[in-house]
Amino acid sequence: MSTHDSAPASRIVVVGSLNADLTIYCDRLPQPGETIHGNGFAVNPGGKSANQAVAASKLGGQVSLVGAVGEDPNGALLLESTARAGVDISHVRRAAEAATGVAIISVDAAGENSIIISAGANGTLAPADVEAAADLFRGAAVVCLCLEVGLDPVAAAAQAARDAGATVLLNLSPYAEIPETLARLSDVLLVNAHEASLFLGKETIPGADMDAAEWEQVRKQFADHGLHRVLVTLGAHGSVVLDSQAADSQQITRIPPTKVVAVDTTGAGDAFTGAVAARLADGASLAEAAAFASVAAALAATKKGTQTAYPDAAEVGLLRNSHTRRT
Questions:
Q1: What is the pTM (predicted TM-score) of this model?
Q2: Could you say which DSSP state residue 53 is in?
Q3: In 160-247, at which residue ranges do the beta strands (DSSP E only) sit?
Q4: Per-residue pLDDT tens for 256-284?
Q5: Which residue out of 21, 129, 243, 270 is catalytically annotated?
Q6: Please, what are the domains in the chain?
Q7: CB distance 214 to 173 below 8 Å
Q8: Does 270 qualify as catalytic in the annotation?
Q9: Is the peptide bond preceding residue 32 cis, with omega within 30 degrees of 0?
Q10: Under 8 Å CB-to-CB from 166, ≥6 apart: which residues?
Q11: Lowest CB count within 10 Å: 9, 122, 157, 269, which one?
Q12: Spatial separation of the C-alpha atoms in residues 67 and 100, rounded to whole Å
């Protein structure tokens, strides 16, 4: 019997991307065709899936990562950073045929960013990698997925998770159209407001100013696609939980934002996703997980970088308690 076969049922499996983040800090983001001066540069470990795995692990989750990096210094950086955070990297493959994925990131003085990614080794991830990690899925409570890798390994991982009885958490980012089969395999969909509007074909983007009746229509639209538990993040305006499986009075829950001074929002969404995964693996409700994740993501935005900025459970608890006392 492998060590994974005997792992606790709270294990989280994250399948997807690992990128080296090449970040330039600047006073403002450039306009098309414009060259501006930066005021700082850093190379940090990143990639949505690696970030989510590290965030969940720092918050107490028992996390395994399935992915691919190149046989290069950036790959070594990513393997070292995720392992240092307590993530099991035994199923992160070294790809001889491709360089490690890279993200080119610009961050302005307000902490807002623009990002371009080059898939590199992430593009080599295949259903065979999911099959090779079958022992992980058998011990998983939550399987966390995103779209920085191809749809084939994502669909294979979703099916493996469903077969194992794990909760499938799909972060629909970067946005891409997904087949109905993948939507129906997803137990929880996590989207930002823009991704929600693209998925539903809505001309207007869901926002904090929408009333309960409008959110009810959004909930029904997602349910029509087989998505009965959806988390819509609204940036600085918090998030909304749409849970068609909850009691009528609890199907729409607004999660207020956690107010902080943002320094760098890069990877804050991944901190949110990892925190949701960690709480769901511990048996929390979707609304409880979202409230916890709101604080974790806010804390992540108060420091530069991604994985090094992610909080632990004690830090999240302190900020939640301080907000509770003020309210």
A1: 0.91
A2: H
A3: 167-171, 188-192, 229-233, 239-243
A4: 999 999 988 889 999 999 999 999 999 99
A5: 270
A6: 11-18+48-100+121-186+258-326 (3.40.1190.20)
A7: no
A8: yes
A9: no
A10: 13, 137, 140, 141, 142, 143
A11: 9
A12: 11
